[in-house]
Amino acid sequence: MVTFLSILCAFLLLPGVLGLLVIYHVLIRGKQSPADKSNRINHIRLLWFSLTREGDFVGLFPWLKNDEWDNVS
Questions:
Q1: CA–CA dist 20, 12 (Å, integer)
Q2: Which end of the chain is more exposed for a tag (fewer CB within 10 A), N or C?
Q3: Could you tell me the CA-to-CA distances from 53 to 4, 25, 32, 48, 66 in Å, in that order?
Q4: Residue 57: closest CA among 48, 37, 24
Q5: What are the per-10-residue average pLDDT scores of the chain (73 residues)?
Q6: Cα angle at 35 between 17 and 40, to 5 degrees?
Q7: Rounded CA gap, 40 and 29, in Å?
């Protein structure tokens, strides 16, 4: 029988894995030069800016203004 706890665990699995992936890439993974260990705060800041101000990155990455199908073809 499917319980509430098993349904809750199934729905929280994907966000949990994504969160661990973000933590790994921002805090644990080794950085290449010039972004060394002392630059971790800037990595967190860049992650925050990319999540909250995606319009500011269109000038740097023009493919962001396209539909995904336009980027593929």
A1: 12
A2: N
A3: 37, 20, 25, 8, 17
A4: 48
A5: 85 92 85 74 86 87 85 80
A6: 50
A7: 11
* Cα(19)–Cα(4) distance, integer angstroms: 23
Is residue 32 exposed (0-12), middle (13-18) or buried (19+ Cβ within 10 Å)?
exposed
For residue 55, give Cα distances in angstroms to 10, 50, 58.
33, 9, 6
Where b means 16+ CB within 10 Å and e means fewer, 42-58 reads eeeeeeeeeeeeeeeee
Domain range list for the chain: 1-30, 31-73
56 Cβ contact partners less than 8 Å away, ≥ 6 residues apart: 49
